Amino acid sequence: MQQQVxxxxxxxxxxxxxxxxxxxxxxxxxxxxxxxVPAAPEWVVAAIPHLNVAISLAAIASISAGWYxxxxxxxxxxxxxxIASTVLFAGFLVLYLYRLILLGGPEPFPxxxxxxxxxxxxxxxxxxxxxxxxxxxVYYALLLAFSYSIGELPRTRHAAVGRVAxxxxxxxxxxxxxxxxxxxxxx
Length: 187
Hints:
- The protein has 187 residues and is an all-alpha fold.
- It has a single domain, classed as Four Helix Bundle (Hemerythrin (Met), subunit A), CATH 1.20.120.
- The protein is built from six helices and no strands.
- It has helices at 2-7, 9-28, 42-71, 75-103, 113-147, 158-186.
- The mean pLDDT is 94.
């Protein structure tokens, strides 16, 4: 299986990215009917943003730890931290999409129009753009890590792509926390 993945890393990255973005945009734009997901009590749906901000903070910590450990030469710890980051992101995404589908789209901004236009929307736009850009980079780095041995990875683009992916991923998660604070803390 690793050899098959290795032979098709760019193509698999493209397919996984396309499927992921189709799910996200389908949920955001309301194309996925809420009848396709199980109903949940209102308190569960209301708790999702709070759980997701905790997941985001944990993901920032695990990405930071992974970055630290690879610089320290602790490859196994790095691998575990990046797997944890990926699992956290997947959990975040499942919860986020579930809530979007149930609510029929994103929640409206409750604050003043000026803050909405000049603070919230630009932050949200950069957060979304970075999240979109991160998807193929993260998939590419993960597929390389999965399909090559530790000794072979230095001959791939894993480190270069991983550095960019981790940087953008952390900024995106950080901006997500700021968006959460604007939606659920400040207003």
